[in-house]
Specification:
Blueprint lengths: L7 H7 L1 H9 L3 E2 L4 E2 L2 H4 L2 H6 L2 E6 L1 H18 L3 E5 H5 L9 E7 L5 H12 L3 E6 L5 H5 L2 E4 L12 H21 L4 H21 L3 H11 L4 E6 L4 H15 L2 E6 L16 E6 L5 H12 L4 E7 L4 H5 L2 E5 L7 H19 L18
Parallel strand pairs: 3-4, 3-5, 5-6, 6-7, 8-9, 8-10, 10-11, 11-12
Antiparallel strand pairs: 1-2
Helix pairs in contact: 2-9, 2-10, 5-9, 5-12, 9-10, 10-15, 11-15, 12-15
The chain binds 5-amino-5-deoxy-1-O-phosphono-D-mannitol.
The site of 5-amino-5-deoxy-1-O-phosphono-D-mannitol has 17 residues, from helix 5 and helix 12.
GO cellular component, one term: cytosol
Keywords: Aminotransferase, Cytoplasm, Glutamine amidotransferase, Repeat, Transferase
GO molecular function, one term: glutamine-fructose-6-phosphate transaminase (isomerizing) activity
Length: 366
């Protein structure tokens, strides 16, 4: 049932090219310039009239929400706020009738997310769900939605749910951009064609497994780890750190790279591995100077770079190369080696990868 892999997590990591494709199949018709999801088509007016979009979610799904914030704002120019469902529900938030609330949940059973949905509905908002489990409580409680087609995710550490959630939210952003005319025709078309290529690029990103394993052998005994990224890859830094914490029990934190100088840089010394997500798009030069700052304080740098990179390569202790893509789609690729790295570190430390201590697959308590 693990398909020849030692753990469900590894199987699920390797399923990503096919489940991303399953998620956009029938919805992304790149050659004729169409993006369609019935839950969106049926409620298009609600999305177009929305003054803002609120995203509620927990854990990895919340990270997917952060990526969506960047993509939806960039493509369709609708303001997006992303909240932890647990904070949202307990803080008397402002919810308007013309808000669209997007609830993201793999399991569809997360108690805090479910409670946030109920609160949003009581206040008259339209609630759209992005769930993986068909017929789950959240899919039933929302007004409409779109399923991720990731298939069952057994490993407690979420992997393929994350990339398929981003896929759905990217499709949504593109659909809204088309309706609102917020992207030029050529950009819109270019993004559609590129999204279609993502599964094969994820396949290529999976070839980083060997190098991820080698790096894991070097750093498996670290007691702390920092993850840095900017822009679209800031949420990936958070997600990379969460994955490492959950399954290897190494203390890890994700930060926007530019926040380093406001505090975390004090942590850097020769025993601190710093994973920097540095694709050749989006403030590349700034990331390069962040790397220099870490280097000059003797931090160990593991950089995720675009194939063919030279500048970061010259500075980093280790580089992991991923294929080139448009900036908004880089999270779908940069996240892959981080999943693999966490996996190998956890295995080398003898941890229970699929069922880490103290964690359950769905958190149905508040
Ligand atoms: O099922 P959900 O997406 O609602 O779950 C949310 C979080 O509990 C979940 O993402 C959790 O953080 C994972 N263990 C992350 O790997």
């Amino acid at each position: 049932e693990k398909g020849g892999y030692d753990h469900f997590m590894m199987k699920e990591i390797y399923e990503q090219p096919s489940v991303i494709k399953d998620t956009y199949r029938g919805r992304l018709l790149a050659n004729i310039g169409i993006v369609q999801m019935s839950g969106v088509e049926d409620n298009l007016e609600k999305f177009l009239n929305a003054k803002r979009i609120l995203v509620v979610a927990c854990g990895t799904s919340w990270h997917a929400g952060l990526v969506a914030e960047y993509i939806i704002e960039e493509f369709s120019r609708i303001p997006v706020e992303v909240e932890y469902a647990s904070e949202f529900r307990y803080r008397n938030p402002i919810i308007n009738k013309d808000d669209v609330v997007i609830a993201i949940s793999q399991s569809g059973e997360t108690a805090d997310t479910l409670a946030a949905i109920k609160l949003a509905k009581e206040n008259g908002a339209f609630v759209f769900g992005v769930c993986n489990v068909v017929g789950s409580s959240i899919s039933r409680e929302t007004h409409a939605g779109a399923y991720t087609h990731a298939g069952p995710e057994i490993g407690v550490a979420s992997t393929k749910a994350f990339t398929t959630q981003i896929t759905i939210l990217t499709l949504l952003a593109l659909r809204l951009a088309k309706a609102k005319g917020t992207l030029s025709n050529s950009d819109y078309q270019r993004y559609l064609l590129e999204l279609e290529l993502i599964p094969e690029k994820v396949e290529e990103a999976l070839l980083t497994n060997d190098i991820a394993k080698k790096i894991a052998e070097i750093y498996k005994d670290a007691s702390n780890c920092l993850y840095l990224g900017r822009g679209y890859n800031f949420p990936v830094a958070l997600e990379g750190a969460l994955k490492l914490k959950e399954i290897s029990y190494i203390h890890a934190e994700g930060y926007p790279a530019a926040e380093m100088k406001h505090g975390p840089i004090a942590l850097i010394d020769e025993s601190m591995p710093v994973i920097v997500i540095a694709p050749n798009k989006g403030h590349y030069d700034k990331v390069v100077s962040n790397i220099q700052e870490i280097k000059s304080r003797s931090g160990k740098i593991i950089a995720v770079v675009t194939k063919g990179d030279t500048q970061v390569k010259a500075l980093a202790d280790h580089v992991i190369e991923i294929p080139e893509t448009n900036e908004p789609f880089t999270p779908l690729l940069t996240t892959i080696p981080l999943q693999l790295l966490s996996y190998h570190i956890a295995v080398l430390r003898g941890c229970n990868v699929d069922q880490p201590r103290n964690l359950a697959k769905s958190v149905t308590v508040e």
